[in-house]
Amino acid sequence: MIDRSLSSRVRWSEHGRSSSTIVLVALPLHTRARSYSDPASEGRSRLLPEFPSKRDMASTALPRAIGTFEELLDLARDAIIVRDVDSGAILYWNQGAGALYGWSKVEAIGHRAPELLHTRFPEPFETMLDELVRTGAWSGELERTTRDGRHVVVESRWNLRRDGDGTPRIFIEVDTDVTERRQAETTLRMVVDNAPVLLFALDSKGVFTLFEGQGVQALGLEAGAMVGHSIFEEYRNPPEILERVREAYAGRAVAFTSRIDSVTFDAQLAPLRDEQDRVIGVIGVATDVSARIRAEEAEHAVRERDAFLSIAAHELRTPLTSLRGFAQLLLRRLDSAAALDGAAVQRLTGRIERQTQTLGALIDQLLDVTRLNAGRLRLDRRETDLVPIVADVVAAVQARGDAHRLVLHAPPTLS
User: Fold this and answer.
1) Strand extents, DSSP E, 195-311
2) How far is 233 from 263, CA to CA, in rounded Å?
3) How far apart are the C-alpha atoms of 159 and 247, rounded to whole Å?
4) Which residues fall within 8 angstroms of residue 368, CB to CB, at 6 or more apart?
5) Could you tell me which of 111, 93, 172, 162 has the C-alpha nearest to residue 138?
């Protein structure tokens, strides 16, 4: 297609009426055409372009090109600054620099950037300048202060330009604002460093490429301590860890709980995939739940204790009830006018004695529980005759009242 805006500057040249080829010549805006006679064309006039002289280009085309170039630079969102190598003065300042730092082009040009922007360098400025002159480039992060007092972090890239004899003259600086990204990274770092988690990543061969988080300290290690080590060598035990890692390499997300030394972790693993959906590694997060597990174990121990005390109270109440019954029966016999039956008194006092022995045995069992918790329980196994035990139960129940008479049919002993 032909740009219609150039139609007024197009001239036609015809090479013989029998030719079907037409040549179009588009003349630039500043090009003039002149006519001359060509003997070969039998005196017909032809048009040739007359190109501008160097003086014309300097006075028209070059300023226009420079203006267009500056307009293009002003479209860039990054800050673009040109600085003199010797003096450090700002020679050019695009609109992106004005938007980032708050100073207009007129206000900034002529000033030195370190003083204007209160720049904090990651290393001595002379060292940075030496690298720029030696290699032709420098890049790194700079901390600066804007006109309204805000602190910003920029990724700064410097490129050197030399004059015709190779002397360094200017350098072009391109700054990208990464303040929000750095703040997000700082916040994430604070979360990782203070949360009871362990973040890790494995490459395709199971080698740690990331090992961070407070959970690292719980294992007695430092951040990054496992980087470069294989999980298949370092965490063979407990075996379920490697089983779950292999599941993640097979493309499945897995969750499990595992204990390493004295630390218990809830872990989640997920496969890391590339653009072709191939598994190229594993990422994982493990949360230290040791405190929760200890709390659950303590709560379980309290429940067990309460259950035991309930049973113990019931067991203690039974012989105490029997003791009280036998004592009341004996008192009734003593208060009655009838003569005391020596055999009956002996029988009642014998049963009282056996109930006191039962109480002593229950107290020993309570002590056994204490020894069991301390790991010092010693079992004392022996044969037991059930007939006396059942007889004591029948007698204890009978002692509670005379409304019914209980009779036990059993041999004197089973031994």
Assistant:
1) 197-202, 208-212, 254-260, 263-273, 279-288
2) 19
3) 49
4) 377
5) 172
360-386 b/e with 16+ CB inside 10 Å = b? Answer: eeeeeeeeeeeeeeeeeeeeeeeeeee
Q: What is the C-alpha to C-alpha distance for residues 37 and 143, in angstroms, rounded to an integer?
A: 70
Name the 3-class secondary structure at 402: coil
For every residue of 340-356, DSSP letters joined together read P-HHHHHHHHHHHHHHH
Q: Are strands 32-37 and 45-50 parallel, antiparallel or unpaired?
A: antiparallel
Among 1, 48, 47, 10, smallest CA distance to 28 is for: 10
Query: Tokens in use for 192?
Result: 């990782």
Angle, in degrees to the nearest 10, between helices 342-373 and 386-398: 120
Output the pTM of the full model.
0.46
Q: Which of 137, 153, 134 is nearest to 145 (CA)?
A: 153
Give the separation between CA 196 and CA 141, rounded to whole angstroms.
Answer: 31
Residue 60 is classified by DSSP as I
Give the pLDDT of residue 38: 46
Taking the mean position of all CA atoms in its chain, how far away is CA 12?
71
CA-to-CA dists, residue 51 to 6, 29, 111, 184, angstroms: 16, 10, 42, 58
148-197: per-residue pLDDT in tens?
A: 999 999 999 999 999 989 999 999 999 999 999 988 888 877 777 777 78
For residue 354, the cross-strand partners are none
Q: Using one digit for the tens of pLDDT, what is the confidence trace for 228-238?
A: 999 999 888 77
Other C-beta atoms lying within 10 Å of the C-beta of residue 307: 10
Tally the residues of the chain. Answer: 415
CA 156 – CA 164 distance, rounded (Å): 26
| pLDDT tens-digit map of 72-125 | 888 888 999 999 999 999 999 999 999 999 999 999 999 999 999 999 999 999
Please state, in angstroms and rounded to a whole number, the distance separating the CA atoms of residues 315 and 307: 12
